[in-house]
From TrEMBL:
One of its GO terms (biological process) is vacuolar proton-transporting V-type ATPase complex assembly. PANTHER family: VACUOLAR ATPASE ASSEMBLY INTEGRAL MEMBRANE PROTEIN VMA21. This is Vacuolar ATPase assembly integral membrane protein VMA21 homolog. It comes from the Eukaryota. GO terms for cellular component: endoplasmic reticulum membrane; endoplasmic reticulum-Golgi intermediate compartment membrane; ER to Golgi transport vesicle membrane. Its main location: endoplasmic reticulum. InterPro entries: Vma21. Keywords: Cytoplasmic vesicle, Endoplasmic reticulum, Membrane, Transmembrane, Transmembrane helix. The keyword Nucleus does not apply. Required for the assembly of the V0 complex of the vacuolar ATPase (V-ATPase) in the endoplasmic reticulum. Belongs to the VMA21 family.
Length: 85
């Protein structure tokens, strides 16, 4: 996602995932509750709260998985410099 040699790339990555962790679960909770479960499926309020919470928790787990993947695949190991004559 980010160039490991660019200054501040780790901070940019962390900032993006922090914003996603705050915004996406809240949006997915209210969107799935009102539009999907109450609108499309016609559920009552008490049932839609539960299923919308499950959707929001699933979104949190997906974001955490994406963060772990990006952090794991980020090649920040120092590359040895060889002298070229």
């Amino acid at each position: 996602m980010a160039n490991p040699k660019a200054p501040g790339s780790v901070m940019n990555t962390m900032l993006v995932f922090t914003i996603m962790m705050v915004v996406l679960p809240i949006f997915s909770y209210f969107f799935s509750k009102s539009v999907i479960f109450e609108g499309v499926f016609g559920m009552i309020h008490t049932s839609s709260y539960f299923y919308a919470a499950v959707v929001a928790i699933s979104v949190v787990h997906v974001i955490l998985g994406m963060f772990i993947y990006v952090a794991w695949s980020d090649d920040s190991r120092p590359v040895p410099q060889f002298k070229a004559d």
